[in-house]
Every structure is written in structure tokens, then in C-alpha cells.
Amino acid sequence: MANPYHMTPDEFRTHGYEMVDWIADYLATIGERQIAPDVKPGDIRAMLPDHAPEAPEGFAAIMADLDQIVMPGITHWQSPGWFAFFPANSSPASILGEMASAGLGVQGMLWSTSPAATEVESVVLDWLVDLLGLPAHWKTTDRGGGVINSSTSDSTHLVLAVARHRAADRGPAEDMVAYASNQAHSSIERGARLAGYGQVRLIGVDDRYGMDHAQLRRQIAADRSSGLIPVAVTSAIGTTATTAVDPVRAVGEIAAENELWHHVDAAYAGNAMICPEFRVYQDGLELVDSYTFNAHKWLLTNFDCNILYVADRRPLIETLSTMPAYLQNAATESGAVIDYRDWHVSLGRRFRALKLWFVLRSYGAEGLRYLIRSHVALADELAARLGADPRFELVAPHPFALVCFRASAGNETTEALAAAINAAGDVAVTPMQLGDDAIIRVSVGQSYTEAEHVERLWNLIDTHTPAIQEES
User: Fold this and answer.
1) Which residues pair with 172 in a beta bridge?
2) For the whole model, what pTM was predicted?
């Protein structure tokens, strides 16, 4: 007897069309919505019952609560006025790919548990090696390979654990040291801690906020002299605060001389490498052991879709591989397949490559290059306006599409300006501290952001700065 609680195929078709219409209407009106919700902690919870329903509820009631309970508490990351943080982009093609993946519902932990899930992923990530100008030996058809994870933090934690495992015969973990710049993402320090490193050294930076490689060399030598064990170093191509770029080649040479694992965090800016003109910033990748970026930031593929490449997959697999009886199968034993469960911490994995495949085919490389270049051009125009106006100071280079600036009048004015911009409702920026300075980060990169939205931001900046200065 069929389960009477399932939707019938016809019911699913009807409600599926309703859901697609709902999403399409949302995307069509996203620019009209207030970006940040007006809710207080606990407001959404207070609208939800204390207990799950005993009897089934109709789909109409569920959709009504989507509008009445969920939507009032949503921050609209897909708004074209989103200039805060880095984007978490989506696109219609990606949404449809995610729907197909959810409908298939496969668990792709092994090649044998769904061959297409593995082979589509390996081919799509090999495509990206070429599209991003990465070293050819990073392909799965060579000695390296790529794998999709949930976030850059996950990939960074993983490779630091692999580096520690590889260095296990050199001494105890509490004597091991990991290195990064003091502008590196916090996930590096946290990942090293989780992987058992005894020390994390945050190296100083130059006047462009890139790692001071001479200081790195001195610190490694000092640590060796103290009996510590240098194990891993992370370079950034596009730091979170300012998109600063570390000297990858110089760091790679130091890593090679000292037998350090060299990881590159290109979470945001790695996407820009689909445009050849930005590849100057990744010079030296042939010296790198691992590299990660988030396609869900700037390549129109909805969260989560982090990509990790390794130059040689053997250390990764040696660190993670186990073979309990319930996973043994002929394909694995043949050695002719990839089993991605040996490439990351979790055993289970979704078919995330499907949405990336949909995006690459729907937009083509030329469509994605158009997106990146248009955002960079808009950011350049905004930076030129700010740089030419004595009321403002650019506080860092802007090699990609992030512009960081402050009010010349000082921290109080800068903080008030950021608050005024965000209070407008249809625009969001990120205020933060960079050293002693209050700054405003403007990330131009949302899927639907056009010149008119940057113009709206500029008008808010222009309008509020004189008034704030007069009040102060």
C-alpha cells in the first residue's frame, strides 16, 4: 500500500510550480525590499508553536507561514543593494540545479553510490582549472584534483590537519607552528587550533596589507632555533578586510626551503581568475600544495559551493582514508575511481556539483567574465569618486571589486556615515575597524547589482557626509 502521507505526483507538480512562482516573484521584487529585518531576538521563535504538528498540515498553510513568519526575519543577501561582507550569490540556473540535486537525493560518498555525482564533479572542477588559469597538474586526470566542500573554513581546517599528519614524524603537535599574515581570515587560526598545532604565528604586513615575506623568513628561523617545528603557511589572494594579496611566489619559495605545506586562501578573489587580466595576482601557484575559493561568492552558484584543489592528492587521501567492511566495493578496490569521501572530513555528501555544472553551462565562461568585469568596473568608478573627493580617504588598494574608505573627518564621522547608509534600508555596507581606523567596506559583487545601484549608494554617501560633518 502506498504511503498515504506522501504528496501524489500531481500534488507535487502543482506545489512545485507554486514554489517556482514564489521564487521568481521574490527575485523580481528583491530590489524593493528592506535589506535588514526589523526584528528583535526571539521575535521569529515567538511566532512558532512549541511543539511539532501531530497531524499533517496543508501546503497552503505552509506557504502562508513562509510569507508571514520566515520572510520578516530574512536578511536579503540577493538584493542588488547588497554591498556588505562579500556576496553569497545565487542565480536562476543555480537554483534549478539545486532543485534537481534535491530531487535526485543521492548520497555521493563513493563512486559506487552514484557514479554521476563523482564524475560530473571531477570533470567540472577540471574545467575550472583551465578557466581559472590554475596549474594543469591540479586536475583529477593528473596527480592533483579538486573537491567541493561547504566553506573555505572547512577546506582550510582540513589541509592544516593534512599538513600536521604529514609532519607527524618530525615531533609532537604541540611543537608545530602554522603561519599566516595578521590580515588572514580567522579560520586559519581556528583551523590550526582544531588540528592541534601548538602555535599560530600572524606575520606583519606591508603598506598594501600583504604579508611581509622577509618577516616570515625570520620568524621561521627563530622558531626553528627555539626547537619548534614549522609545518604550514597560508597565503591570501584577497584578504577579507581589504582584498590584499600576499606574495604567493615569495612565500612559496620560503615554504619549499623549509618543508612547509603552502596553502592559498582565495575565497573571494579566486573567482576573478576566470578573467586572465587578474591572474598576475596568483603568480607562483606552481609552488602551492593546496588552494581554495568559494564559487558561492562570485560565480553565481548559491551557497554552499567551496572548491578545494590539491597539487598532489596522495597526502589528502592518506590522511583521511579508512575502509570499513560496509564501504568495500569492487569499484573502489579496482583503484580506477575517485571516492570523494576520502577527500574531506564528512562521509556523506550532496550532489553540489550539479548546480555548478548548470551555472557554467547556462552562463558560459563569457557570461561569468562579463559579471566579474562589470562589478570591477563599477567598483573602480566608485573608488575614483571617493579618491577625488577630499571628504574621503581610500584606505587600501582595490585590485578586485571591494572598496574600503573612511571619512577624512575621522572615526566618529565614518561610523555615523555607515549607520546612515544602512538606515536607508535598500543599501547595506559593512563598517569595521582596520587598525585604529573606522572604515566602510563596499563589496560590489551581488548577482543583480548594476550601475544604478552603485549610484544610489554614492548618493547616500554624498548626501549624508556633509550633514554629519556639520553636526560634528
Assistant:
1) none
2) 0.94
